[in-house]
Amino acid sequence: MSQAQRRAEPGAGGSAGRGPFRLRAEVVESEALPAVHHRVVLRAPEIAACAQPGQFVHIWCHPPAEIDRPPCDALLRRPYSISRLRPPDGVEILLRVRGVGGRLLAAKTVGDALDVIGPLGNGFRTWPDIGVAVVVAGGIGLAPVPALIARLAASGARVVLLAGAETDEKIPFRVERPRAGRATLPEVAALGAEVTFVSESVEGILITEVVALRLDELPEEGSAMFACGPRAMLKRLAEVASGHIPLQVSLEERMACGLGACRSCVVPVRCDNGTAYKTVCRDGPVFDAAEIDWERLTP
Amino acid sequence: MSQAQRRAEPGAGGSAGRGPFRLRAEVVESEALPAVHHRVVLRAPEIAACAQPGQFVHIWCHPPAEIDRPPCDALLRRPYSISRLRPPDGVEILLRVRGVGGRLLAAKTVGDALDVIGPLGNGFRTWPDIGVAVVVAGGIGLAPVPALIARLAASGARVVLLAGAETDEKIPFRVERPRAGRATLPEVAALGAEVTFVSESVEGILITEVVALRLDELPEEGSAMFACGPRAMLKRLAEVASGHIPLQVSLEERMACGLGACRSCVVPVRCDNGTAYKTVCRDGPVFDAAEIDWERLTP
Amino acid sequence: MTAPDTAVSIGSMSMKNPVMIASGIFGYGDEFRGLAEYGELGALVLKTVTRQPREGNPPGHRTVETPAGMLNAIGLENVGLEAFVRDKLPAALEYGTNIVASIAGEAVEEFAECARALDGTGVAAIEINISCPNVKKGGMAFGVDAGASAEVAAAVRAATGKPIIAKLTPNVTDIAGVAVACERAGADAVSLVNTFSAMAIDVESRRPLLAAGSGGLSGPAIRPAAVYRVYQVAQAVEVPVIGMGVIWNASDALEFIIAGASAVAVGTALYADPAAGNRVLNGIRDYLESHSIARLSDIVGSVEL
Amino acid sequence: MTAPDTAVSIGSMSMKNPVMIASGIFGYGDEFRGLAEYGELGALVLKTVTRQPREGNPPGHRTVETPAGMLNAIGLENVGLEAFVRDKLPAALEYGTNIVASIAGEAVEEFAECARALDGTGVAAIEINISCPNVKKGGMAFGVDAGASAEVAAAVRAATGKPIIAKLTPNVTDIAGVAVACERAGADAVSLVNTFSAMAIDVESRRPLLAAGSGGLSGPAIRPAAVYRVYQVAQAVEVPVIGMGVIWNASDALEFIIAGASAVAVGTALYADPAAGNRVLNGIRDYLESHSIARLSDIVGSVEL
Ligand SMILES: Cc1cc2nc3c(=O)[nH]c(=O)nc-3n(C[C@H](O)[C@H](O)[C@H](O)COP(=O)(O)OP(=O)(O)OC[C@H]3O[C@@H](n4cnc5c(N)ncnc54)[C@H](O)[C@@H]3O)c2cc1C
Ligand SMILES: Cc1cc2nc3c(=O)[nH]c(=O)nc-3n(C[C@H](O)[C@H](O)[C@H](O)COP(=O)(O)OP(=O)(O)OC[C@H]3O[C@@H](n4cnc5c(N)ncnc54)[C@H](O)[C@@H]3O)c2cc1C
Ligand SMILES: Cc1cc2nc3c(=O)[nH]c(=O)nc-3n(C[C@H](O)[C@H](O)[C@H](O)COP(=O)(O)O)c2cc1C
Ligand SMILES: Cc1cc2nc3c(=O)[nH]c(=O)nc-3n(C[C@H](O)[C@H](O)[C@H](O)COP(=O)(O)O)c2cc1C
Ligand code: FES
Ligand code: FES
Predict the structure, then answer these.
(1) Which among C8, C64, C71, C132 is annotated as catalytic?
(2) Torsion over CA of A182, A185, A186 and A188, rounded to 10 degrees?
(3) Which residues, including other chains, have CB under 8 Å from residue A197's CB and lie 6 or more apart?
């Protein structure tokens, strides 16, 4: 990094004036997971100190020392959810490796440095008197779930995770299918959640339908729902949840700045006179489902 | 490589209808040499079978399997002289690693494949009754010298190599400076040449001046000179040799096709009415010095 | 050797050095705060504003990466002139360097109105964006026509005493002609290039990757095309030229300067490196020092053909 | 499923498939012989010829790599019409597929003369290069003006019964306008894009990297800008559009086709992979088969905005 670049500097974005920070984070763990997934743990003290579940980091995929040379691919940073905090100063991310940026990140080895900005955006809001917290995740939407579950469990809520995917290969965790009973994700369950996992290809049901079926079981007061996954899933959940249970959703959109400046990553939100746009990177990625204009949101 | 691409196919270029061939050559040796040099030996039977000293190969620097993906740098192939034939089917090249293409090639390891077209261009002409062959090389201009020396020595000529560089680091061979006598390059001498090496920084003289001083020693009949190196060196040699000794020079120029089609790599040659252009890739890279229009050749 | 002199003047706007931030990259300046010393740069150009707020292009992808570049089709989403002056400008002025407002409109009078409203504010200069490829009306519609460009420049000239910069589109036959027309109409400088109009298609869905269909190409990809246009314009006008088209490092900036740019603006590179402007500036200083060049202006337009 | 129908007609020239080789890349066809089955392709466009031989741009670098692209400034070096017809064409015709001659000139009459001389030869079509950015007179001077382009097209139309293709420059404000003018004047097809004018400077020597100063940018860098221009032109003309602008793989080609190109030409990619055209063709066939598309023409211009 050049002299002008700071190791860690509070910026204006993010929630409540904490960060974002830009720093050169060391890779302290790098592990290939089943299918095309990968776990990276970064030493990022300033980020770890203030990150909220649902916030993300924006990562430059090339070596920090080469920032002076324009790359020809992965020109832009890549947004990844903070998956879990690893005290004292670790930030874990889970990648589903699909494109060039993901490949570059998955190729990093312990000791490599990454130029990271974060924590960015607004995470999931939690509050003390949540009785039952239903967390719904689809596919790589499971990435931010561990931090969220940890937070919810710590706040005393009963946490129910309903996770789904097309196939077991689409999630970054190991699936356990006991002889009797439903499939689970032991690593996630260990964080303090009751886990149900369904894969379309095995169980033949969509997770949204599981949610719809189980919605009645929830106490009317003190329940809350949190979701992350493909837009079609989120849209269906918003329908299901509407009028029954407060729902927060985490959205994705193509980003450039990641800071709220460029207006790349907007999604339509309802407003008094028609629609307005909010940014996924700064206003989100987590929104109240009721706030989103689902009709105008592209699939 | 795609189906459409052939393993080895005779083309129309090159000398006497032999080649060029395009083939997927396996790297059988890859060795870092002193300073920024690198030796790569390719298994390229069709090329090895017909290559002449002074001809070159045109190398795609990315993995052959990725030819379907446009790269963002090293978009064009890179020309490298055939440095030496390594029977039965090896072709050796020596790289001075300066830019992105060189770096990609130097990073290849044994067993990797390279997509190579060759042999290309017209090499050095040699003939049976050369008495004394003076080979003059500057810097990385030494690359094609081993093959040339081997050919000349085999034809019965006495081979004198006068090699020079700014510093010892600018050549791909080990320099030996005995207590008494002049510096030599043992690896090259072993091929059958009397070697004199001078480095500007140590001996404080330019190789062209050594040539000028020693020109009188040569028999009037049956001597021939061959040169490869920076243009300033070749131009000075052309002056020195003119009227005394036939001189062939090997030139470099930026290439695109390497086949004589695109007219990228032209150099000005004398012709009856003014100047004309010839291509380094197909008419050259070796030209009679007397043919070149040295005044119009850019430095 | 004393430190090289890097000062540049654009009309009455004095810049301590030639490095600016390009419009639209940096929003209104607040979002990047703290990620670099933006106050060290010569000037910061804020996101283009229009008289009324605009919601920009429809939702869906507004940016997409392409080889060595990116397409954007934001569609001039902005808070509108009033909110800009009231809510955004004061904070931007705290950077302590020149703040340049960028304005656009669908009619000549709209440009003039914006300029009039900015005349009493603390902005150091006004950039007129007649080159946005991402809005149907206005924007590029002016910039592709020398006459229309001149009309806008003249109207803005009449409306403000601030220095004005005409931002030009490369999507024209004769960019130098447009530049000269703007100069004659009173522009104190011209800046170029805005993005090249472009489109990328997903061959599976057979739909454009950008929600808006087409957009503007920026990135290292276009640098040589941008450098050439700066060269052409610099040959034709007397006023300073501000060069841009992915300036990523000092060498890129120097290419533009040697081609004829008196100042340069960093755009897309800021997304990768929020401190790109500062990095470029340091590199320019190093180059001047190591080449014993006393004044930056000594090398502006020094390319030898 | 039977093999998809990939045939394309350009006036009276029938091509068995839409893949061509772009002019200037392939010389007169002889140099690449044996490196791929060029006869399998739809048509091969040979290097542009002029009435008299031309020596092209001065010596020094004529090509230089840039991010995801290359600049060239060959300057239409060619053997001249007579030697072309006598020495080069016969060998090219041996490929057994359509051979297209590309012609240029400094005056309208020169284009007409070339066309007349080619009328009696075996060329399947004539491309008129009114878009070369690398010569001072002629070339792009025509292509940047709709009227002048139409004049050239009309003169060539009068001089030959062969199908004619007008090759357009992207360095204009209104490429669709130029295309329409050529169509009205009798062009059977338009091809685009030729290269974007561009420049790269060595900041150490402060000299352009190309001996000619400026040149034309091709490469993956410009693909989105080229695709958009093909889209614009295809919306405006009835005649077939031939798309190009670094088509490297089948997906690139399909972008052009979906944007509106009836055929595509492979250029710069041939330098990396002499079999790029064949590779692209195979990939197009695979796409059609795997998407159960019976005729290529079903997806020409099928982009949904
Ligand atoms: C707030 C947020 C949090 C995310 N968290 C995770 C996570 O924890 N784990 C994970 O695997 N993925 C996550 N993603 C998606 C991740 O950003 C993309 O997979 C990644 O950017 C793809 O980059 P690539 O170069 O590998 O793929 P490519 O397909 O080559 O990327 C091409 C371009 O598209 C953009 N892009 C592609 N997919 C997405 C996407 N889904 N969202 C936004 N931009 C995209 C890229 O950033 C890049 O600019 C998140 C996205 C957002 C917006
Ligand atoms: C006939 C011929 C034989 C050669 N033999 C050798 C050899 O045996 N060993 C060796 O080390 N080098 C040799 N060179 C030079 C070698 O081709 C360049 O060093 C190499 O192309 C640089 O590529 P790069 O990507 O590493 O450098 P970069 O500087 O990144 O290359 C940028 C561009 O310039 C071109 N270029 C740069 N230098 C040269 C050059 N000297 N000649 C032609 N094009 C150049 C590259 O091909 C590329 O297109 C030869 C050149 C020619 C023409
Ligand atoms: C996301 C994005 C938004 C932009 N918005 C504006 C804008 O509002 N006004 C403007 O004049 N230029 C705008 N531009 C153009 C840039 O200011 C600049 O001219 C262009 O991107 C070329 O420079 P670069 O390659 O360094 O980015 C925008 C560019 C990008 C990438
Ligand atoms: C080295 C070179 C020479 C060219 N010469 C010609 C030419 O003589 N006539 C012509 O019409 N186009 C010429 N072109 C332009 C190409 O035909 C093509 O339009 C352009 O390169 C864009 O396609 P590409 O990106 O696939 O190469 C040339 C291009 C290159 C790179
Ligand atoms: S990515 Fe720039 S505003 Fe969200
Ligand atoms: S490189 Fe194409 S003619 Fe020499």
Answers:
(1) C132
(2) -130
(3) A163, A164, A165, A171, A175, A182, A183, A184, A185
Query: Which residue type does D122 have?
Result: G
**Which residues, other chains included, contact D107 with Cβ-Cβ below 8 Å and sequence gap of 6+?**
D138
Residue of C272, C288, C240, C281 lying closest to C40 (CA atoms): C281
Tokens, residue D107: 């005056």
Kindly give the residue spans of alpha helices, DSSP state H, lying in chain C: 81-83, 89-93, 108-119, 140-143, 146-159, 175-184, 223-236, 250-259, 269-272, 276-290
What are the pLDDT digits (tens) for D222-259? 999 999 999 999 999 999 999 999 899 999 999 999 99
- Whether B100 is in the pocket of ligand 2, judged by its Cβ within 6 Å, is yes
C-beta neighbour count of B69 within 10 angstroms: 15
- Are C32 and A257 within 8 A, CB to CB? yes
Query: Considering CB atoms only, which of D173, D221, D258 is closest to C206?
Result: D258
- Report the interhelical angle of D108-119 vs D146-159 (nearest 10°): 30
Whether CATH 3.40.640.10 fits D8-298: no
**If you compute the radius of gyration of chain B from its CA atoms, what whole number of angstroms results?**
19
Domain of residue B104, CATH code: 2.40.30.10
User: Taking a C-beta distance cutoff of 8 angstroms, is the pair D206, C258 a contact?
Assistant: yes
ipTM of the complex: 0.92
Whether the model pTM is above 0.90: yes
Which residue in chain D has the smallest CA separation from A69? D67
The mean pLDDT value for C174-180 works out to: 95
pLDDT value of position A214: 86
Instruction: Work out the pLDDT band at B7, boundaries 50, 70, 90.
Output: very low
Residues B245 and B267 in one domain: no
Helix axes D223-236, D250-259, angle to 10 degrees: 30
Q: What are phi and psi of A284, to 5 degrees?
A: -105, -150
Give the model's confidence band at C135: pLDDT under 50 very low, under 70 low, under 90 confident, else very high.
Answer: low
Over residues B163-179, the pLDDT tens digits come to 999 988 889 999 988 88
DSSP state of D5: B
Sequence ranges of the domains in chain D = 8-298
Q: What is the per-residue pLDDT for B16?
A: 41
The reply to whether residue A71 touches residue B71, judged by beta carbons under 8 angstroms, is no
CA D152, D154, D158, D162 dihedral sign is positive
Structural domain containing residue A64:
8-120
Ligand 5 pocket check for A260: Cβ under 6 Å? yes
Asked if residue B249 lies in contact with residue B285, where contact means CB atoms within 8 angstroms, the answer is no
Kindly state whether residues B67 and B142 are assigned to the same domain.
no
Query: For chains C and D, what is the number of CB pairs under 8 angstroms?
Result: 134
